[in-house]
Amino acid sequence: MSSASDYVYGELRRRLMAGSFLPGEPLREEHIATQLSVSRTPVRNAIERLIADGLVTREGRRGAVVLGWQDRDIDEAFELRMLLEPYSAKAAAERATPEQIDELDRINQCMLDAVNSGAPDHVAQVQHYNNLFHHALLNAAQSARVRSLVENLLDMPIIIGSFYFYGRDDMLRSVEHHRQIIAAIRARDPECAEIAVRFHLATTHLLFRSHRKDKKTLEHE
After folding, report:
1. What is the DSSP letter of 70?
2. 162 has pLDDT over 80
3. How big is the chain by its Cα radius of gyration, in Å?
4. Full-prediction pTM beyond 0.85?
């Protein structure tokens, strides 16, 4: 994937997640290409990736249009996660095998390496490893019931791209939160693990809401 396509994809993803486009609004390749000072080819490639992500769809002659994600949808997803994921961390502290704890450590190190890599697609890599971490945490809880309830929330298209809002310090803070979660699980401290995950998710939700609010304010000034 070219750097131009990565740039356009990242910028459009940030705008979509920030609510800068209305639900049902068409994405005009020529207009976006002019706005971002690129040719239409990377715009076309970026839109195809956004369709694969579930943030955009195609509607006949209208072409690519934005799928609707309201603030209420996002708040509900985070609130449900804050109810269920702390429980999974508590369960992981009680049930996780040493191998599962080591896997959490390995994934978090990969996430840190991605943050520090400076690669053009490092944000996508960070997001990938973050998602893997939270799925691994569910696996470590060893509860099929909890996993079935939470997995769809982790993989919501509007949630899975949250790192497109993050700066480097935000990413490093997330890695550190993961370290604290792992430490609590390794220490077999269910209460500490539960609190660490709840704090991590509350911080993530606050950052997400702040960026959406700031972006909307700028768009309407």
Report:
1. -
2. no
3. 18
4. no
